[in-house]
């Protein structure tokens, strides 16, 4: 099973936290720049470690696909 709900909720929480600290923005571009910087920072923290367990799952999925 792959769960993405916690990841999405965590991302939304991080964006809300970042924008809540700054109450007003001079224009839409400044808000978008801040959100993009937040997303880049979140991605660097989230994907800091490589996924190593996927090879086992990939082999199992390939075997099941071959049976079909």
Descriptive labels:
elongated; 3 helices; mainly alpha; 68 residues
Summarize the biggest pleated sheet.
none
Helices, by number, come to: 3
Q: What is the molecular shape?
A: elongated
- Total beta strand runs: 0
Low-confidence stretches: none
Number of domains: 1
Structural class: mainly alpha
Distance between the termini: 20 Å
Computed over alpha carbons, the radius of gyration is: 18 Å
The oligomeric status of these chains comes to single chain
Rounded mean pLDDT score? 81
Order of helices and strands: HHH
Share of helical residues: over 70%
Percentage of residues in DSSP E strands: under 5%
List the helices and strands and how they pair.
Blueprint: H1 5-21, H2 28-46, H3 54-67
Helix pairs in contact: 1-2
Briefly say what this structure is.
By secondary structure, the protein is an all-alpha fold. The protein has three helices and no strands.
Explain what the structure shows:
The relative contact order is 0.09. The longest helix has 19 residues, at 28-46. This protein has three helices and no strands. It starts with a helix and ends with a helix. The protein has 68 residues and is mainly α.
């Amino acid at each position: 099973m792959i769960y993405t709900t916690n990841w999405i909720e965590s991302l939304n929480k991080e964006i809300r936290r970042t924008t809540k600290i700054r109450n007003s923005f001079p224009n839409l571009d400044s808000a978008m720049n801040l959100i993009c910087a937040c997303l880049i920072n979140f991605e660097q923290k989230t994907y800091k470690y490589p996924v190593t367990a996927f090879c086992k799952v990939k082999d199992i999925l390939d075997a099941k696909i071959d049976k079909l």
